[in-house]
Amino acid sequence: MNRLPYPRRRRSQRRRHRQPGLLQMLSRVSGNAGLRCFLVLVLTAAAACADIGKYGGTLVMSAGSPPKSFNPIVAKEASTTAITGYIFEGLTTLDAFTLQVKPNLATRWEHDSTGTVWTFHLRRDVVWNDGVPFTASDVVFTFEKLIFNDEIPTSSRDVFLIGGKKLKVKALDRYTVRFTLPDRFAPFLMLCGQEILPEHVYSGFVENHTFNFSMGLDSKPADIVGTGAFMLEDFRPGEYLILKRNPRYWKKDAAGNRLPYLDRIVYLITPDQNLALLKFRKGEIDAISLRAQDYLVLRKAAPSGVIFFNAGPSLGSEFIVFNQNLDAKIPGAQKQWFRNVWFRRAVSCAIDRQAIVRNIFAGLGYPLYGPVSESVKNFYNPAIPRYPYDIEKAKQYLAKAGFKIGSDGFLRDSKGNIVSFSLITNSNNSERIQECNFIRNDLEKLGIRVNFLPVEFNSLVTRLNVTGDWESVMIGLT
Fold first, then answer.
1. Per-residue confidence (pLDDT) for residue 6, from 0 to 100
2. What range does the domain containing 105 cover?
3. Cα distance between residue 462 and residue 347, in whole Å
């Protein structure tokens, strides 16, 4: 028998853990790179844990895809951010239960009467995991030298452009930072959960124009420096990733004990969801993100004393996106279809969301008609226009856009082009594969040909964000 690359966990020990142009489809009970059905199974004894925990233990989980890097600034995929979220932190964070913004690396903040000038007061007891103090200069560096650096391909830049204009950030002293916004911006506090990076470690990479390649998968663990509760210990591509406790982490429990309690978190790279479920049932994995079919199996086989929690709709959403970029590497006719609002409305009306919920998710899902899940109370708008399943309405919308079904049964545009496009999704997600097949069948009722192709997740992200080589995609945001 091969030895595990990490210490076996002490099973008798109690622990508390908490992991820090589109068509909307579904919002489910919770998500893993989308809207996976996620129900937490907790033994009754564990649910009664005291607030003061005990040190030690290893939490083992599965990862469907390995990270592409350890760089949170250039990361564009959940396989990376799932890991960097343990290592890096922002000025604010969201309360896991109320979803309200609360202090993190900042202790408090205030704004002026216009709501455009925000002053953050930073914690004075935080050090980077290499022992160097965290200060306001790190915040300024992260925004000015990383996020607003045009040489660095970061999605965060788009998030912090307000009305197309940059915000300004200034260190007032060692532990005070002021942001000046071009206009009021409701999500600003929430977005200040943006990861902060240490100037003393990464400024040299910026000066040498090599930051985009820093924190790669071949990096030494000591080169990945953050303020988070865990640090990188080991990574073996295709096998596992190990995070270890950061002994310098600033958070403490009510008794003044430095957190976290866990010694390690281990991610086993397990692209096969069936294998992950098997490992979970054998006790080799402590927590997994469940498919609806997995929930039904576990519920039926659950011993007495197991509690199932249904947390309601996921915070994320799952959706189809058409490539509407003017410079997309797709035929011109497709660009015209995808940018036509009547075509997109017709596709929405052709998709039977309720059938997908019933047949793929065993009823554990919620049809979604906008970009925000109903769980996100501050931004969810129940009054937005909806385009639910209605084949006749879909045909009417297509007629308005000049589409007609030919004698051969295929839909054609006003120039006679047969309407056909490819649809991709990540190949390690069996539920999305089933959804895409449902959608392909639904669109055939309109005479639309859909060429469905599952793609490895990190390759899919590259096509979306780098090469632009895609026509439509089903993906999710968490």
1. 44
2. 65-228
3. 26
